[in-house]
TrEMBL record, chain A:
The keyword Oxidoreductase applies. Keywords: Nitrate assimilation, Oxidoreductase. This is Nitrite reductase (NAD(P)H), small subunit. It comes from the Bacteria. Pfam families: Rieske_2. PROSITE patterns: NIRD. GO terms for biological process: nitrate assimilation. SUPFAM superfamilies: ISP domain. Transmembrane segments: none annotated. One of its GO terms (molecular function) is 2 iron, 2 sulfur cluster binding. The keyword Manganese does not apply.
From TrEMBL, chain B:
GO terms for biological process: energy derivation by oxidation of organic compounds; nitrate assimilation. The lineage of its organism: Bacteria, Pseudomonadati, Pseudomonadota, Gammaproteobacteria, Alteromonadales. Binds 1 [4Fe-4S] cluster per subunit. This is Nitrite reductase (NAD(P)H), large subunit. Its EC number is 1.7.1.4. InterPro entries: BFD-like_2Fe2S-bd_dom (IPR007419), BFD-like_2Fe2S-bd_dom_sf (IPR041854), FAD/NAD-bd_sf (IPR036188), FAD/NAD-binding_dom (IPR023753), FAD/NAD-linked_Rdtase_dimer_sf (IPR016156), NasD-like (IPR052034), NiRdtase/SiRdtase_haem-b_fer (IPR005117), Nit/Sulf_reduc_fer-like_dom_sf (IPR036136). Residues 639-757 form the Nitrite/sulphite reductase 4Fe-4S domain. GO terms for molecular function: 2 iron, 2 sulfur cluster binding; 4 iron, 4 sulfur cluster binding; flavin adenine dinucleotide binding; heme binding; metal ion binding; NADP binding; nitrite reductase [NAD(P)H] activity. [4Fe-4S] cluster binds at residues 648, 654, 688, 692. PANTHER family: NITRITE REDUCTASE (NADH) LARGE SUBUNIT. Pathway: Nitrogen metabolism; nitrate reduction (assimilation). Signal peptide: none annotated. Residues 431-475 form the BFD-like [2Fe-2S]-binding domain. Residues 329-397 form the NADH-rubredoxin oxidoreductase C-terminal domain. It comes from Colwellia psychrerythraea (Vibrio psychroerythus).
Amino acid sequence: MTNLTTEKAEKSWRTICETTDLVKDSGISALIANSAGEDEQVAIFHIPNSEEKIYAVGNYDPIGQANVLYRGLVGCINDEPVVSSPLYKQHYSLKTGRCLQEEQTIAVYDIRIENEQVQLFY
Amino acid sequence: MSTDKQLLTKSNIVVVGNGMVGHHFVEEMAKNPNYQITVLSAESRLAYDRVHLSEYFAGKTADDLAMTTPEHYEELGVTFKTNAKVILIDKIVQYVTTESGETYHYDKLILATGSYPFVPPIPGKDQEHCLVYRTIDDLEDIAASAKESKVGVVIGGGLLGLEAANAIKQLGLQTHVVEFAPQLMGVQIDGGGGRLLREKIEDLGVQVHTSKATSVIEKGDTSRYKLCFSDDTELETDLILFSAGIRPYDNLAREFDLTLGERGGIVVNNQCQTSDENIYAIGECALWNNFIFGLVAPGYTMAKVAAKHIAGITSENGEIAAFTGADMSTKLKLMGVEVGSIGDAHGKTAGALTYTYENQPEGVYKKIVVSADKKNLLGAVLIGDTSDYDTLLQYMLNAIELPDSPEGLILPMAADKPTLGVDALPDTATICSCHNVTKGDIIASIDAGAMTVGDVKSCTKAGSGCGGCAALVKSVADNEFEKRGVEVKKDICEHFAYSRRELFDIVSVEKIKTFDELLEKHGRGLGCEICKPVAGSVLASVWNDYILKKPHLSLQDTNDTYLGNMQKDGTYSVVPRIAGGEITPDKLIVLGEVAKKYNLYTKITGGARVDLFGARVEQLPPIWKELVEAGFETGHAYGKSLRTVKSCVGSTWCRYGVQDSMSMAIDLEHRYKGLRAPHKIKFGVSGCTRECAEAQGKDIGIIATDNGWNLYVAGNGGMKPRHGDLFATDLDDETLVNYVDRILMFYVQTGDRLQRTSTWMDNLEGGLAYLQDVIIKDSLGINDVLETQMQSIVGTYQCEWKTTIEDPEALKRFQPFVNSDKSDSNIQFVTEREQIRPARGQEKIDVKVIDATKKEAIAEEA
């Protein structure tokens, strides 16, 4: 029960969940297998009032060293949509993955909603 | 001269007396390592605060009043002896001898022997219930005597006499004040002021008898004693307190030939040296310029001057420190009556002119004394309203030129009342006289980085003595901040240009129920991790909805969302409520069983309950389901809300308990559980004055008395400990709860984001007295509203965990992944002292290479 998939797959849009699974102005997490076949955790945020409405970034907080970012509060700093780490409160841009306070960057994923399906490109 | 030599032969300083002034000298002198200080005190206690002595009857203990401890003196390297009365001074060989025959050599001797209460030579004055009011021992005698007495008389209507009268009135005696002069407080205030003060004090039920000379104290007819006056009138009483002034304790000086004043007092020069250059006298035993200073501030100045002179410390331009007299202005509250006296209150200066304002219905009397040319203020008397005191004092001390119509300074509601801008004060102006802090000191503290009024207070100590200058300190500091362009901005974040308090008002007044609505009407952007929880807390306080209801869900910090405290590895702690720390064995067993089943690290907390650590998100609902079924409810350990009410076992079991603190603690904890506040709130309830529950270190502290409960507010432990302020005494259960309701709701409404009650109190303009006015006297007329709001919160309480586990929609949030049933493989534990703890970096096993069996062994699943 280590790897979700073992064969290396081509990247494509894959359905993660339904839109009803999303929580408005908050996050959920998903587990995917990356191109190397390893488990990867993704934090997905649904912010209907923002420009892109839905964002996906890595769930791992490189400063707090725990998989917790989906439990952070979302908002904006100077109009940049951000999530604030629930551990030590640093802000990560949901657009670029860049940490606004320290030299750290988290992964950013392409995400979209198609026919009420939440799809991630990986 | 080499420093080495100095260090080898430290000079011996012997200090006789350890009152407030003697102690101050020790602290000043100990700053210099070249001196070996020995303190000889005739009293059994080291220095304590005599200025606040009357608070002893309001619940303060000898420890509360203490100004130092043996440990502190040891740290300073000071040798001290208590019960060591000095009986001999040898000025030639330079040593002193104590009653027990020990001798101490001195290079410099400091006499800080203070004063004693003068007891007029009235026949019959030495009987058992004839007492004085000076030391803690005296107070103990008074309290003991009051238990066997119904009527008490204070002989002497000066400042101390009225304080003593207040004390025996608080002890429940029918109280009289007898004064020889035709008016009360003749030293500080004029006839007009004295008349009004008398009226006000009589309104409070204290009978005042002026122009009365007591000729003899006889056995009474209806009471224990009878005072017979020279005008052939009599007064029956059980207890007599003498407060007819003080006399310097100068007998040592008298016996060993130091120069004394005609009416006593050890004569000193500007450096506080007596007629022997190696002997100094400071404080109330010293006579400077034929005057004895009976206040503590001049005593402190003398202590500093003497210490500097001994150490040879001069000012930057080489001036020797000197005592050049002191301002004797005072502002105080006597039995709730405000009294202020500044400078030449009687207008004795040649050519002085006066302006008087009297408002009999309101009970206010104000007088100012100005120079013949009307340019300078010489003195003032204020009764019933001392709000002009600070301004008037600054006019006098700094010789600021008066406005054209000086009467405007004391007239009420004068539209063009001249205000003395703090800018007009010179840098040398004393702002806090207790700690001798000038305007310049406050500016220097801001230069050194103080960013708030609170910072200024803590680094300069300004406002921490009597507190009378608090408002002035704030305006000086704010003025300085403003000048530097430091905007005193209260906006909580970039999304709302409002403080928490303003948001509270907006939400209540406009009946706003959701964050989206608030953001749309009053904010901008998407919000952030600062304004969202504030809005969540305010909405919860005003409407008390279940906090995980959809519109509020995204506002909560993760701790509130998952109803647990997130730990460093992303797991949570589980803390059920154990009200007052009382738990049945059965429930305790349930906690143990649950902890064992889910392999949770278990610890007893400082708040007398049990923390279970290491629960994964997905384990929280099943854990809480078991706990709720066993009768537990959430402990709100995650919320900015009531945490615990710590209690001792109280009168039910304890031999010393005087009230049932346990029942009170449990009732209070259940009453206020779930209340959302600017920050966490802790209570303590102690069943007697031994204070085992450490209630004075809590936001709300309650200590049992023989007659009910004493209520303390705004205490704090943690980072910046603060003793709670005594808010009210001897309350019955109902009044106690009533006051706590109002105080908490007022805090919830007006506190800033993440502001504990201690800083809230420190920043409350007017401080404790203001809060008492609001809560007890309803000065803002909001008590009905506060009570209604609290009642609705108490009435709509729900256990958030119970609600959550019954709601399938809410439970979805506790799945670790939306698309998988796996657990987070990064959460790993190792064993330490037979329990789990989070694995550290190098202890973690890389999940990519881990096989299934191993992983299950480590990342323990339920």
